[in-house]
Design brief:
The structure is a homodimer. The first copy, chain A, has about 120 residues and is mainly beta. The first copy, chain A, has a single domain, classed as Sandwich (Jelly Rolls). Chain A is built from one helix and eight strands, in the order E-H-E-E-E-E-E-E-E. In chain A, strands 2, 3, 4, 5, 6, 7 and 8 form a seven-stranded antiparallel β-sheet that branches. In chain A, a hairpin with a 3-residue loop joins strand 5 and strand 6. The longest helix of chain A has 5 residues. At the A-B interface, strand 1, strand 2, strand 6, strand 7 and strand 8 of A face strand 1, strand 2, strand 6, strand 7 and strand 8 of B. Strand 1 of chain A pairs antiparallel with strand 7 of chain B.
Chain lengths: ~120, ~120
């Protein structure tokens, strides 16, 4: 039960597409990640996923359109919906999602991360 | 699946201790609230609760100590832990908690809010 400072936690790592866990509640994880470039198209069979942009502007591609999520905005991607995050410049995001969520979802991609580190 | 802008949503209301719902995922709600003054001591029997401070500085009193959560910081209050939010000046917060959570928890207080509005 200590305050968690997002800026300070984000200073602790610099790699992209490798989320860190910063909180857990109600079977959900709070994660921070740095994104740059194009991720893989994927979906999560069971998990809805929230992306809150802490800095930068994130493009979220869907099969039928693209949304831009700016700093101070969030988007919720429901389970089963194919999406691809694209960050033309580095984007810092906070994620809220079930603790079972794998970053690459149902897809096969070398950037898959499991057993994420707590910071 | 549209971006939600926290600042724009916060402009839509001005009353205190009356959370609004701005998102739902995985049985959880994302809420925004404006806090000012001292709330009631309470706990939530089943629900962990996350407070992310969007503006201002929130004091979270526990029975054995007080934490100050500043803008850009969050705190998680586990189920069953008595707490009292205190905002000496107005504080804007994002809440992430199960959709069953009632703001006043197990306590009896006139500021109890149920059937929250979506904005």
């Amino acid at each position: 039960m200590k305050p968690v400072n997002l800026t300070e936690k984000l200073k602790l790592f610099s790699d992209h597409w490798n989320p860190r866990i910063v909180g857990a509640l109600n079977g959900q994880h709070v994660k921070l990640a740095k994104l740059k470039g194009e991720f893989v198209w994927h979906s999560h069979a069971e998990e809805d996923e929230l992306f809150l942009v802490v800095s930068g502007a994130l493009k979220m591609e869907f099969r039928d359109r693209t949304e831009v999520i700016k700093t101070g905005e969030f988007i919720i991607v429901p389970a089963g919906v194919e999406h691809r995050p694209v960050a033309e410049s580095e984007v810092e995001v906070l994620l809220f999602e079930p603790d079972t969520t794998v970053n690459t979802g149902e897809s096969d991609d070398p950037r898959k991360r499991e057993d994420l580190d707590w910071i």
